[in-house]
Amino acid sequence: MSTLPFGPRNPPEDPLLAKAAELPKDVMPQRDLWPAIAARIGQAGEPPAKPAFRWPLALAAAFLVASVSALLTWSLLRDPQRASPPVIAEAPTAGADIVPVRYGPNSGISAAEIAARDALLSQFRDALVTLKPETREAIQKNLAVMQAAADEIDAALAKDPASGMLQGMLAGTYKQELSLYSTVVTKRDGLTRRT
Amino acid sequence: MSIRNPWLAAAILAAIAAPAAAQQTITKRASVAADATVEVSNVQGIVKITAWDKNEVELVAELESDKDELEFEATPRKVRIEVDRPNSRYGRDQEDANLTVRVPRGARLIVDTVSADVTVADVRGEQDLESVSGSVGTQAYDAPVKAASVSGDVTVTGTGGKGAVKVENVSGTATVTGVLGSLEGEVVSGEIHATIAAAELIDVNSVSGDITVNAELTSTASVDMESVSGTITLKIKPPVNADFDIESFSGDIENCFGQKARDTSKFTPGSELSFTQGNGGARVELQTLSGEIRVCDR
């Protein structure tokens, strides 16, 4: 078994390292961290907070990327003709009143993650017209439930920004939202012919 | 009463005959391997799958709409059954497509529907059953079972096998009974009610729905239950030998083993409770933001 050279001595031979070297050295935080830091400083008598672990959000982001890419790949493999200009059967109205979950300033969900979610959302809105009215209503109610949860978690994160439990719950809510859109889109695309 | 106008009579006859002509029953059969994969997709109606002691797949499809197209593709390893419906808005095409399928007992199932209910009986192979608004009901044996619906109810009944069970639901209720070993579940506003014996893994969460689990834990069991605002109830069959970590941001913690929760901070309303019951061993982690947590052995 041969071993691939790896490390700083071989950057030109390693395309991954070459790309990594091009990355910016300074990364700006996604939001203003000072209010949370100031709040923590005020708790001088408290034991040191647990380090904020971001893996729940990373997990949710990974889920999003996997969902969207799997959805696109699946659509292309299923019927290549659908990849070229999408045919809109009828102007959808049922999905127009669907309001996606708005994540608050403490959520840490990035603009890129929201943009990717919104791309899935537009397909979801198209798919809604094929569902029973009571199903659409149930979906709207549950998006409202997710919104209430996101608001509640965001408010709690304002008080305890380092809470892994809260971050995990927020990531779970985000994942549930994406999963809902993905399920409806996948079933609609898989089971109906676009005419 | 007699109809004297022949055109009117013809129109009435046509109106009566048209639905009859549109409805069609199609039967298909194929010889397959004992553990063949059977994929079934349907938009509306029912999907009923039962196992039999033949290495054959039999489909009886009753299609109410002449717009529906039935696809049946079979190889010895895989059968694909799909009712393909033109893209349409709900309300225009409400005809059902009812699929009754018989498969080898060891078949592996993949079922997708929009609003068709799914029922599966006696199938021992792995199952992946999903619907948007239809209900999903099946039995769990030794192979993994995933049952999911957005707004329909999900029911999984164990039969003494050790197949891992996974349920997903948005607003419907997920009911799991008599399962051995492993349960994973996710709901939004729906509820999870589960009874699990010899549990090795329980991993369930909800946004606002209540979660109730009755469990018998093995010494190495791992239990994670989480809800944002729903009530979590865990009843463990005695003797209880487990290490508990319970955390709540603002909800109540009820523990019938006696230990009391302590505040996590004087600046936040959070409370937590960690203790070992009996000899310890199993790991139990329960978390909520504003819901209630109840843990008990009765």
Can you describe what's shown?
The complex is a heterodimer of chains A (195) and B (298). With 195 residues, chain A is mainly α. Chain A has one domain (54-190). Helix content of chain A is 58%, strand content 1%. The radius of gyration of chain A is 21 Å and the shape is elongated. The termini of chain A are far apart. Chain B is mainly β. Chain B folds into two domains: 24-104, no CATH class; 135-298, no CATH class. Helix content of chain B is 6%, strand content 57%. Chain B is built from one helix and 24 strands. Chain B has one helix at residues 6-22; strands spanning 24-31, 37-42, 45-52, 56-63, 69-74, 78-86, 97-104, 108-113, 117-121, 127-131, 136-140, 145-149, 154-158, 165-169, 174-187, 192-206, 211-227, 232-236, 242-248, 253-255, 262-263, 271-277, 282-288, 293-296. Chain B has a 24-stranded mixed β-sheet that branches. Chain B is elongated. The N and C termini of chain B lie far apart (72 Å). Residues 11-21 of chain B have low confidence and may be disordered. Classes of the chains: A mainly alpha (195), B mainly beta (298). Chains A and B meet through helix 5, helix 6 and strand 1 of A and strand 6 of B. Strand 1 of chain A pairs parallel with strand 6 of chain B, so a sheet runs across the interface.
